[in-house]
Amino acid sequence: MSDSSSPSFDQMPRWVWRAVVIFWAGFLATVVLRELWQSLYGLMVLLLVALFLSLAIEPGVNRLAARGWRRGSATAVILLSVFVVLVVFMAAIGALVGQQIADLLGDSETYVNRTVDFLNDNFGTQIDAGQVIASLQDPNGSVQRFINSQQSRVVDISVTALGLVVQAFSVALFTFYLVADGPRLRRSICSRLSPVRQRKVLATWDLAIEKTGGYLYSRALLAGLSSVFHWVVLQTIGTRAPVAMALWVGVISQFLPVIGTYIAGALPVLVTFIDSPQRALAVLIAVLVYQQLENYLIVPRVTARTMNLHPAIAFGSAIAGGAVMGAVGAVLAIPGAAMIQALLSDMGERHEVVDDRLTTVDPRRLPSATDNGESGDTVDGTA
Q: How would residue 230 be classed by pLDDT, with cut points 50, 70 and 90?
């Protein structure tokens, strides 16, 4: 007979029960956190955009405050100026697009004949313009069915537009308080930290302002160069509203990473195509040529002088940010990457690089002394 006081081989160890409890508690906590994140995702995006804008306009507010302005008034003036510029820009583009659509619908037969003649003459097609016009005007055709289906979405589009206005107002409100009460917010945070940590927090904050301002400066400079180039091209070709179209291409291509170039170039090509397919082809070629010149000649130099961020890192950051948070993440990822790179550059000990053919860099491309050691000895000196 076995001793009743001896432990049974079938008895489960105590740690197993604790492991089971910890596992299910962690699982439930993960589910709750996921649900909270999904519920608060929209708010987090708004706060992130507001933080980005607050870092961008803080230097301007600080300059006005140094001249005797109240921070609240200075912040309100800058935010209002940005809002007015955006409204005027979008109104000008919207009016131009609306006019083009009205002209296209009002004289569709002329445009169809012109387009069909261009395709038949240059690509050897045998398209019958009469059949195309008949299919467009057929009340049971696919084009008319699509137009009729879009009329029912007017309410949905209006609700979406109203939601965007509310979100923009929320971002502006968060931005106002982050900038207007910036010193008080930073004092509240630093009051709970030791003097050493306070200096690190303030240095990081100042670095974030510098990198965000550098990003906006570089984007604005690139947008200006792009706008001037495309204005000259569009003015020469004879595109309608060349100034508005050039500003559209410059702003959208620079402030909407990765896909912004294609969206920006599509509108002037389509507007020109309505009047002349041949001139639209010339616009398309000009857009593609400038994009290559910008990628290989302009962007590396501007980025090196303003953000000290390698173009490959900027491109990868934009893709990663877009994958995580969409277009907003793509825009915010670039200054974030520049700030992280600058912070990491101050970590660890640096050593002199040995001479080798794999580390030989053109002296003209070495980082200057004003880079504060942020970029390091990169291949092209643009990091």
A: very high
Dist. CA 276–CA 238, nearest whole Å: 10
Cβ neighbors of 308 (< 8 A, separation 6 or more) are: 338, 341, 342, 367, 371, 374, 375, 382, 383
Neighbours of 9 (CB within 10 A): 5
Closest CA to 211 of 72, 296, 313, 79: 313
Q: Using the 8-state DSSP alphabet, how is residue 241 labeled?
A: S
Q: pTM to 2 decimals?
A: 0.69
* CA separation for the pair 228, 222 (Å, rounded): 10
Q: At what angle are helices 195-237 and 182-190 packed, to 10 degrees?
A: 150
Q: How far is CA 264 from CA 248, 258, 269, in A?
A: 6, 11, 9
* 96 Cβ neighbours under 8 A, 6+ residues apart: 240, 241, 244, 245, 271
CB 359 within 8 A of CB 377: yes
251 alpha carbon, distance to own chain's centre: 11
Measured N-to-C along each axis, helices 71-106 and 108-123 cross at an angle, to the nearest 10 degrees, of 80
Closest listed residue to residue 170, CA positions, set 62, 321, 44, 86:
44
3-state SS assignment for residue 357: coil
Whole-number Å distance between alpha carbons of 236 and 241: 12
Residue 319, H or E segment: helix 311-345
- Sorted by sequence, the CB contacts under 8 Å of residue 54 that are 6+ apart come out as 174, 175, 178, 179, 182
Distance CA 217, CA 28 (A): 46
Quick check: helix, strand or coil at residue 7?
coil
Reduced to 3 states (helix: H, G, I; strand: E, B; else coil), residue 128 is coil
Alpha carbon distance, N-terminus to C-terminus of the chain: 79
pLDDT in tens, 237-270: 988 888 888 989 998 888 876 677 888 889 899 8
pLDDT tens-digit series, residues 303-314: 666 666 766 777
